[in-house]
Amino acid sequence: MKDLKTAILMLIIFTVICGGVYPALVTGIAQAVFPYQANGSFIVDKNGRVVGSALIGQPFSDPKYFRPRPSATPDFAYDPLGSGGSNSGPTNRAYLATVAERVKSLRNAGLSGSVPAELVQASASGLDPHISPEAAMAQVPRLAGLRGVSEVALGRLVQAHTEDRQLGILGSQRVNVLELNLELDTLKP
Amino acid sequence: MNVFELLETISFFTILLILVKPVGAFMARVYQGERTFLSPVLAPCENLLYRICGINRDEEMGWKRYARAMILFNLALFAALFAMLMLQHMLPLNPLKLPGFSWHLALNTAVSFVTNTNWQAYSGESAVSYFTQMAGLAVHNFVSAATGMAVVIALIRGFVRRKTSMLGNFWLDMTRGALYILLPISLIAALVLVSQGVIQNFSPYKTVPLVQPASYDKPKQDTTGKPVKGEKGNPVTERVTVKEVTIPMGPVASQEAIKELGTNGGGFFNANSSHPYENPTPLSNFVEILLILLIPGSLTYTFGLMAGNTRQGWALLAVMLLVLIVSFGVLQGVESIGNPLVSKLGVRGVNMEGKEVRFSLAGSSLFTVSTTGTSCGAINTMHDSLTPLGGMIPLSLILLGEIIFGGVGSGLYTMLAFAVIAVFVAGLMIGRTPEYLGKKIEVREMWMSILTILTAGIVVLVLSGIAMISPSATASMANPGAHGLSEVLYAFASMSNNNGSAFAGLNANVSFYNILGSIAMILGRYVPAVAVLAMAGSLAEKKYVPPSLGTLPTDKAPFALWLALVILIVGALTFFPALALGPIAEHFMMNM
Fold first, then answer.
1. Regarding beta strands A174-176 and A130-131, do their DSSP bridges make them parallel or antiparallel, or are they unpaired?
2. Any CB–CB contact under 8 A between B221 and chain A?
3. Are A26 and B201 in contact (CB under 8 A)?
4. Taking a C-beta distance cutoff of 8 angstroms, is the pair A57, B284 a contact?
5. Which of B347, B381, B584 to mutate to test the interface with A (most CBs of A within 10 A)?
6. Using a CB-CB distance cutoff of 8 angstroms, which residues of chain B are in contact with residue A15?
């Protein structure tokens, strides 16, 4: 049948064009023009060692670091091989108990006032590298005590790491937790 | 909604509306075989392709042959992808040595990508090799989208042509759609996305040390891989310290661009467009939403232009915009209130469960309504974790039949079927013979329109019903109670309407959902597509009836409003009982 033969030939040709030529072309141009982004936006320290990706969050649980968002990746938090959210429904009791526990842990770490939602609710990707500037500022008093740095200096650090809305209006203001913590380590190990 | 979010939303719709006319006009030229500014480069490729495949570019097809060519092509695509998924361990570009799929997962996945659904019962980074992503899944993103566009173009020709049985040539429409429209836009979009941080490489996964090592309790397994149980039957765990993590790499940007543009939605990674490597910045998010709505929106202009009256197209676009903006407003509103059960714990702010900080609430909500109003199904927000009424918005947009912009091609042809129904119902009320675009609407058109709009709905309700009485199906629910029903309803709504997003808590990789889901996707895609072609065939044979005083003008605001009402009434009548038991019941439980 003529149409069947055409169908199979079309399948082969489009596999070559869309599955071969197109991605190869994008890769070639991307590697030439945007090599940093195309290869994963990796942060390199002054010794030339890769310390992480600016786009992929890391699990900080030590109280002497700024806390990132909770992550629902399986096995352990911020596992890049298991991206995803908790998919917990809003009335799920087990989920609400988890949130209550996170609130308690923040309170024990000295957080006062109302709790910023992103510090107790897990992100969609499980790898969200950001928190809001408010959520970072709320942690400043704890870190000032533990690190022996003045609150003012830490506040300035948070401000310096606050990314503004893109093009002035898009998205939200945000702080990259990994970059902030790396800076914190160089400021006062 | 703060002023920045408002500005973001307004600028989004402004840019979309500015693009509709030039892109729509360009697509009309492409499908009418006229020269475009891309012809000097692409026409030689196109001609070569026709020569190799033995396609005669002057040959026209009647509706049956057009439908047959479409189905044969899709069958070939299905067979190739099914084989590739089963055998990926024997194919190249598989640095992680990932194994082949189980047969029912391969079946579900192949059907899913051929039908433009892109339902994913697997997790991309841990199950699919670079070769399968590129030569399999990404190819389907192009051709399934081009297939949908070809069908709507055939339908438009049915309205426009007079006293002929010929609807055009499927091979030409398919090829031109992919070559002139999808590939060039994807190429540019992919590069814009890379500039924002979307990765594009073939490197092996990268191992990176953690600044602060993490430890967790890992369930202990014996040598056969079974969990070890303690004396009381409780699982034994061991403390594991993680010093470094493995970050997946891959050709993501090239796939991300077509995944949004072709309203496919199948993510490279499990987290889909919420993953920072798929959607790293607010700007990449903005561009991705624009890509989702670009072709479905612009096709309304293509339609108007080909039908000889662009206001016919604007009227349909107005209906889509109206429903989309209202849905956005509701979603944004309920999510900004947050979850009262969480607020009670002393937490302030919007519901952030399953959302990313960088997008802002408006960026999340806009993506959510766009991806479910169209049949895209990519997500930057976990729909399962939306508040009950918030989650009802994407669910309802899917249940309306994927017409609020809709899938590329499939959205407009389903919308046109609704327009035929609306004209018919209005005709009954005012006692006139119903006509649309100068063609009399008769019994055959009504049958085909009804098949087009009701197939998915019937499949959703029947299969969700079967799932509710099957213990193996209800065991997959991640959340108890009313929310569990929402998960199952969403799963079948998503598959039948070829959306592909999920209330992802549901463990869908079990044979029950894989097999019944495949049936849902096939029926939801091909019954409407063939019905639409049959309608196109019968419309093309009719003679033109010039508008008279008694003709209902279908290019004016009253008709647009009427059409919106018909859509909402059909949707509400079909699905209200199910929605009442799922999200609405949960809403009241949450606020008790």
1. antiparallel
2. no
3. no
4. no
5. B347
6. 80, 135, 139
Q: Residue B227 gets which letter from DSSP?
A: B
Nearest CB neighbour to B275, from listed A1, A125, A130 = A125
Chain A interface mutation, best of B41, B143, B203, B208, highest count of A Cβ atoms under 10 Å: B208
Give A146 to chain B, closest Cα distance, Å: 16
Q: What is the crossing angle of helices B410-430 and B310-337, to 10°?
A: 100
Which of B382, B544, B407 has the alpha carbon at shortest distance from B478? B382
Report the C-alpha gap between B170 and B529 in whole angstroms. 13
Cα separations (Å) of A70 from B11, B29, B81, B362?
Answer: 32, 51, 37, 22
Q: Which chain B residues have a beta carbon less than 8 Å from that of A143?
A: none
B88 φ, ψ to 5°?
-65, -20
pLDDT 10s digits, B513-541: 999 999 999 999 999 999 999 999 999 99
Which candidate from B141, B275, B388 shows the least CB-CB separation from A90? B388
Nearest to B449 by CA among B553, B577, B566, B283: B566
pLDDT tens profile A80-121: 999 999 999 999 999 999 999 999 999 998 888 899 999 999
Instruction: Tell me which residues of chain B, numbers 314 to 343, contact chain A at a CB-CB cutoff of 8 Å.
Output: 338-339, 341-342
What's the one-letter identity of residue B116? N
Q: Would you tell me how many other CB atoms lie within 10 Å of the CB of residue A164?
A: 11
Complex ipTM: 0.96
Helix (H, G, I), strand (E, B) or coil at A29: helix
Nearest to B153 by CA among B31, B275, B335, B69: B31
The model's pTM? 0.95
The DSSP annotation for A76-133 comes to STT-GGG-------TT-HHHHHHHHHHHHHHHHTT--SSEEGGGTS--SSS---EE-H
